[in-house]
Automatic annotation (TrEMBL):
GO molecular function per UniProt: metal ion binding; molybdopterin molybdotransferase activity
Superkingdom, taxonomy of origin: Bacteria
InterPro entries the UniProt entry points to: MoaB/Mog-like_dom_sf, MoaB/Mog_dom, MoCF_biosynth_CS, MoeA-like, MoeA_linker/N, MoeA_linker/N_sf
Sorted UniProt keywords: Magnesium, Metal-binding, Molybdenum, Molybdenum cofactor biosynthesis, Transferase
Required cofactor names: Mg(2+)
Organism: Leifsonia shinshuensis
Biological processes annotated in GO: Mo-molybdopterin cofactor biosynthetic process
Official protein name in the record: Molybdopterin molybdenumtransferase
PANTHER family registered for this protein in UniProt: GEPHYRIN, MOLYBDOPTERIN BIOSYNTHESIS PROTEIN
Amino acid sequence: MTGNGGRPSWHEARAIAAAAGSAPAAGSAPAAGSALAPESVPLHAAIGRRLAADLVTPIDLPHFASAAMDGWLVAGDGPWTLVDHSPGRGQASPIVTGALVPADAFAVLRSESGEVAGGTLRSTVAGEPRPGHHIRRPGTEALRGERLIGAGTPLNPAHVALAAATGADELLVAAVPSVALVLTGDEVVTSGVPAPGRVRDSFAVQLPALIGMLGGRVAGTARVPDRLDDTVAALRDADAALIVTTGGTGTSSADHLRDALRTLGARLLVDGVAMRPGGPTRIAELPDGRLVAALPGNPLAAMVSAITLVEPLLAGLAGRPPEPVRTVRGATAEGRAGSTVLVPYTEIDGRAQVAAWRGAAMMRGLAGASGILVVPPEGVRDGEDAESVPVPWRVVA
Ligand SMILES: Nc1nc2c(c(=O)[nH]1)N[C@H]1C(S)=C(S)[C@@H](COP(=O)(O)OP(=O)(O)OC[C@H]3O[C@@H](n4cnc5c(N)ncnc54)[C@H](O)[C@@H]3O)O[C@H]1N2
Ligand code: MOO
């Protein structure tokens, strides 16, 4: 569905964004950050990254037979004569958890299940040890050649511990696209309480973290005055696969983003979106292949665009599908003809209640939100399913 004014719908814009990131222009030179080949990183650095190639274990897991308890390695039925070498039939020798045992070892008797008197060990628990008791056999977790983690898996600490057990020192992970921020606005101040007519910067304090949560890495931030030549220079000099700009998307004498893109010969892939807020969002490709996501200056509009449109761009650049849109049970939300309305919501009693603070410059609604509700032009009726994009953050401390 194409939105009003010839602008793509929000769904179409997401699809264009995902494809833009994954298909660099034919013949374009790779930009600094857009050589998005997978990279090999040490294990600890792989947590939170996506595995780029299947992890196949080159060894059995575990790869040798070992004692699972402290006690004695025993051979045959007891009682056993204690020895200080590998026991033969009728003999036992002390052993600690994890120690290597012969592949054909009979059993381990736990220290609390045996008693030594005069150099002879006896079991004090009827039925212990059974044959094979307390011995970890090789290959019980995985056999050599088994695929343990599939390509594309986001790696958690347990994955990385598993990789270490296979003997890996590094893992091949998908690239994290580099992002350059270009923030516009003469009226923006970066500390303290702004005077009337000035606004406190909403972006530099959180966009690097947000971009990180969306799958990118901010390599640098430039602030530019509301001038065409400065905007052109900032875009020209930004050294990253993706440039994210804020503000200046309008048509007033203080807005230069579109002219700057034109001056640089950019190809506009998305020239505004039939969405609210965030309608003025642009996605463009510079002649050298770098991508630009131009977000409106209004803070909520910019963040809604970042979460729902920059994320697919980053996903495409990293060679993964965008985060899927979810379904939630909605509470009544009004739509808008010809547009998708994107509104922060919180889940109350299993229903997505839209936030009261949804003005394009308001942060209060998004700050407490579980996600962004995707309200179609016809609106959402109470109890009806609706699409949603979860917020990408989770606060743990
Ligand atoms: N005649 C029209 N005017 C506007 C339209 C329109 O269609 N016709 N669209 C409105 C919409 S929707 C939006 S969104 C904004 C887009 O504005 P720009 O992208 O050009 O952004 P600015 O004009 O630079 O700023 C808009 C607003 O945001 C504040 N801002 C900017 N940067 C920051 C920052 N770093 N931190 C906090 N706040 C920021 C700025 O002070 C303005 O209040 O245009 C509407 N106008
Ligand atoms: O993107 Mo604007 O903030 O729709 O209002």
